[in-house]
Amino acid sequence: MKAAAAAAVALGLATGPAAGCDIALLLTMDVSGSVDAGEYRMQADGLAAALADPAIVDVLVEGRAALAVMQWSGVAQQALVVPWRRIAGPDDAARLAGEVQRMERVYYASDTAVGDAIAFAAGRFGPVADCRRHVIDISGDGAANAGRPTGAARQAAARAGIEINAVAIEGIGVAITEFFRRAAITRGGFVLTARGHIDYARAIRDKLFRELVRPSG
């Protein structure tokens, strides 16, 4: 039995069906002005490491997941930097992890428009309409300071059947965690807290596993 399947059994969890796409997961990265070059690299490397983790690879393959990566910052600053990739086997996951590690940063020194990021992400699921679940991952180190209201963007996404979860990258305290919990995640969604960018790799790995391996019953 694969490592992830064994872990799922031990935790009383169930993975998605192997026959079709269980989840389309759009991973978003904050590249606003509060993120310096070193912090960007921690995010990119951390996400790439999570996608290469054997336990994550197992559940991606078992669920026939589709993933894409988006970078976002201020108003009209959102880009799908890695388009949708279907994960049918370990080689697909390895190629995706490599793409993530090599991707270039597309925005610098701008605002934090969380609502605009959610709205843009919500419109990107057309190519993966066959997947059973549509999920947006919002990762960021700041509350919204520009653009459309975050809560309204969340509501529109929820009406379209899209789930939103988050990783809050905190300095001191839990202000970003509380902002994401209050304004960004959908009903049934969750926020994981990273204690600085250096903790992002751990947080994104834990979040991916929680999203991909669903509670049974």
Estimated structural class = alpha/beta
How far the N terminus sits from the C terminus, by CA atoms, comes to: 21 Å
CATH architecture classification? 3-Layer(aba) Sandwich
CATH homologous superfamily placement: von Willebrand factor, type A domain
Share of residues in strands: 15-25%
In the predicted model, the low-confidence regions spanning at least 5 consecutive residues are: 1-18
User: Can you tell me the CATH class?
Assistant: Alpha Beta
Instruction: Determine the mean pLDDT.
Output: 90
Question: Could you say what the CATH topology is called?
Answer: Rossmann fold
The number of helices is 8
Strand order within the widest beta sheet: 4-3-2-5-6-7
Q: Percentage of helical residues?
A: 40-55%
- The total count of strands amounts to 8
Which value, in Å, is the CA radius of gyration? Answer: 16 Å
Tell me the count of domains: 1
